[in-house]
Amino acid sequence: MKTADCDILLEKSALVLHGCASEAAGAALRGVLVLRLKKETKVKSIRLQLEGRVQIAWESDRIYTVDETVIDNVLTIIRPNTGCVLPKGNTVYEFEFRFPGDLPETVFTPCGQIKYHINAVIERPHIFRDIYIQKPILVRRQPYLINSDTIDDSLNISQIYKNAANVQIQAPTRSYMFGETIPLHITLSYLMGNVSICRIALRLVQTMVLGIPGTSGTKKLQQWREISNNAVSCNEFIFNTRLPEDIFQPACSTKYIETTHEAILIISFTINGKVECGYVTFGINLTCKREEDESLPTYTPVKAEDASPKLPSYTEVTICTNQGLSLR
């Protein structure tokens, strides 16, 4: 009969690395390891392992593969061979892992993935089965503050097509989540007679580049989808287009996988009785749903007497067993 189980609970659903590598260095992943015991239980050791791996494969002139570990940190809660008896009920151990600022964000694509997880190992005496649990970690990168007034992410394009029509396109932002609507404000002014708009369509183009750092091995994958196509007749209108939730991969920029997107607006004109198409291309940033808290934390002054006199090691840290807390 199972007498114990455990769980890893995280303080936040995702670890967000803000800014460049130097600004993001030291981001903390915090949580608790919860042991639920039906009776007093002997353990030999308890440890947590944070691991991040890159696994990519593609075929070009030859087969290219990447299988690298980007982070591998161990946190020892009960040292091996020290041993102890844990009481019946719930026991909680707090933990914290610090991340380097240059780690790639979590990515899942058909050609490869970058993923992180925490492994918990509760080692029991040899006649008992050890307890293992694994918790996936979502790592996000936020290059700038969300809703920052210092970043102009708006769209404002003016383009003349064949000296026949001037097209102006405006939008409040170029960044959208899958499932959101892109509101394009389109204004047309005709530069000659016998010109009118008859149709408008929007295509999304995804470009994915796979690479092996330090080598010339790369592969570029591109695909497109038409997500809207409507007949129009007026010279000024809002072209609302909803982004399908499962159409493409979210944008990312790592040295292993880089994904970018472009939007192509196709405007069909009738010029002297003949239908001709004009194309307007602009970059767009497509992301998956943001976590509840991707903003920077609130900072408060730290008193000198509160500072630790000795910096901890982030490779391996030992926590005394008396730091276990009881949950009610």
TrEMBL record:
Pfam family, any one: Arrestin_N
Protein name (record): Arrestin-like N-terminal domain-containing protein
InterPro entries hit by this protein: Arrestin-like_C, Arrestin-like_N, Arrestin_domain-protein, Ig_E-set
One example GO MF annotation: protein-macromolecule adaptor activity
GO cellular component: cytosol; plasma membrane
GO biological process: ubiquitin-dependent endocytosis
Tree of life domain: Eukaryota
Alphabetical list of SUPFAM superfamilies matching this protein: E set domains
Endpoints of the signal sequence: none
Limits of the Arrestin-like N-terminal domain: 26-129
